[in-house]
Amino acid sequence: MESKRALILLLVLCSVFPQDAQQQGRGIAGIVLKGRDEVGVNAVEAGILKSGLTTVFFPIIYTIVFVVGLIANGMALWVFLFRTKKKYPSSIYMANLALADLLFVVWIPLKISYHTQQNNWLYGEPLCKVLVSFFYGNMYCSVLFITCLSVQRYWVVAHPLSTQKRNNKVAIGVCVAIWVFIWISSIPLYLYDQTAKIQGMNITTCHDVTIVPVNEFDRYSSLKHPVFYFMFMSTVAFFVPCIVIVVAYALLLKTLSTNVIDSTGSKTRKKAIVLIAVVLVTFLICFVPSNIMLVVHYALLKAGEPNTLYGFYITALCLSSLNSCIDPFIYYFVSDEFREHVKNTLLCRSSRSVEREKATFSSMKYSKKSKSFVSGSTNTESSHC
Length: 385
Prior knowledge:
This protein is an all-alpha fold and about 375 residues long. About 75% of the residues lie in helices and about 0% in strands. The protein has a two-stranded antiparallel sheet with strand order 1-2. Helix 3 runs antiparallel to helix 4 and helix 6 packs parallel to helix 8. The relative contact order is 0.12. The model is unreliable at about 5-35 and about 370-385 (pLDDT under 50). InterPro entries: GPCR_Rhodpsn, GPCR_Rhodpsn_7TM, Pro_rcpt_2, Protea_act_rcpt. It is found in: Cell membrane.
């Protein structure tokens, strides 16, 4: 009788502990030993985390983004706020775009330190969540503000007589709405762990490894926040804006080709084509690969399938940060006034001296025209000789 009771107890224990181990097992491809907080990854993912791709190439990219983005966007924001007297809707959108880039760029030294430390995050879970939030906030802010610029560019050409004051109010309202939307939509990023201690590697990753329970029910509850966020944002803040941008630039080119025939119009058309090319390059390098890979990555995680494209996934996320370097070229091609202010800033010329030179030049030009008119009227007879 006692032997039967012992056998039954042994069977119960054997059936309970494997299930418990499954529920606690977490990782992209593998489970952890019971009682540990470490996450298991497969050999491919471990190799990528140790490779020069993440420990050499990524720090180089982020260093370029930090140096170029900090200088270019800092100068752009300064020009838009302090050197531009008349505030147009386009300058309002570009100032907000530069601010979004700056808010991300100031956090990049943490990313550089993380990758140079062999992908070992030393700054704790809260700071990792803040970094991830600013990373994706910058991405989707850039997409939405570029969309606004594209629509505004078409509107100026199609409706040149629209009231600027009313348009400025609309632009300010749209910018406020975008910032509120980005901050509220980033809440899911704070609701799940972004750091993961990797088993056997003695490192703690920040966002590069997603913690996934083996149990299907626990996997759903663990992934519901990131899956919702990335599926929602990829649709609302990327794919829909892409359609809007394509339609806006198609209408812009159509309007320019039908309404403009003089040299000024030809110049405007060339400028529009260059702007479209810059926006297209920005999307192809920064936003299209990263958003596609985000959708694929989390779809595979939700289905419990191994992500064989893990290297492409993290590389696409790294390259998406290059938008902070490319955005200033959008300002350069959109605004003639911005180009002029940048030139004057680099030459250390104040706005007063520039205005004084313009006034002097215009007065000299007017005086020359007056003299030529007087000499032409007094020397009429000699001109016939």
